[in-house]
């Protein structure tokens, strides 16, 4: 049966400028329900800005962002806050509260937005930590965790309000290859078990080959190509070839624009 529900994320001619510099330039994109979509690009190309626009944390200069069919570009902050409950954000540095235990970090959005009895709250935190393979860590402090463990706690916290959309900012940054592969496996497992739609921004090509259904390469404010990474591998665009192969010389580094 074909679903008539709107796509979880739609970008329509999305543009963003700051201080006279164009960060994004007329970007179009539709992310399908349950898809793991990756945005690749060099550091400083606007990948994180794209996530912030999707979350409504910054306003576009022009164009539209639609979340589950709702145009969020003109929404008031209170309405945006309500809509953000359907989106979970996993920050590059995990953004855990260092003064809180793991359990308190995961419980934080629940305490803010849900009125749960203490026993139910503790049970929900326990379930969330088990979901990301961090069972039994409630009483640890963030300083006691490895980088990979901190990211998993960040994922558990992002899942607390049962979002339909998960946004990941450089999820494998700073991780060793084994931890990075485990992070990729977790992202895929959450899609398969919980059904979330995922957007990952990253320059970790090896990780994105493993985890993404489709990917886009962001360069000078535009998507050079959109499709499975295996299709991008066969592109004749020299900028795409340079990025995927990790070559120091090519269109992406000419003139040091990025």
Topology:
Layout: E1 9-18, E2 21-31, E3 36-40, H1 47-55, E4 62-67, E5 70-71, H2 77-84, E6 87-90, H3 102-113, H4 118-131, H5 147-158, E7 165-169, H6 177-194, E8 197-202, H7 205-211, E9 214-219, E10 222-227, H8 229-232, H9 238-245
Parallel strand pairs: 3-8, 3-9, 6-7, 7-8
Antiparallel strand pairs: 1-2, 1-4, 4-5, 9-10
Helix pairs in contact: 3-4, 3-5, 4-5, 6-7
Short description, anyone?
With 258 residues, this protein is α/β, with parallel strands linked by helices. It is built from 9 helices and 10 strands.
What does this structure look like?
By secondary structure, the protein is of the alpha/beta class. It has a domain at 98-162. The protein has helices at residues 47-55, 77-84, 102-113, 118-131, 147-158, 177-194, 205-211, 229-232, 238-245; strands at residues 9-18, 21-31, 36-40, 62-67, 70-71, 87-90, 165-169, 197-202, 214-219, 222-227. The strands form 2 sheets. The chain has a 6-stranded mixed sheet, with helices on both faces. A 4-stranded antiparallel sheet has the order 2-1-4-5, with helices on one face. The chain starts with 8 loop residues before the first strand and ends in a 13-residue tail after the last helix. The model has no long low-confidence stretch (mean pLDDT 91).
- How large is the share of residues in beta strands? 15-25%
Strand runs, count: 10
Distance between the termini: 45 Å
> What are the low-pLDDT stretches, counting only 5+ consecutive residues below 50?
none
Shape: globular
Mean pLDDT: 91
Order of helices and strands: EEEHEEHEHHHEHEHEEHH
The strand order across the widest sheet is 6-7-8-3-9-10
Fraction of helical residues: 25-40%
Radius of gyration equals 19 Å
Structural class: alpha/beta
Count the helices. How many?
9
Largest β-sheet summary: 6 strands, mixed
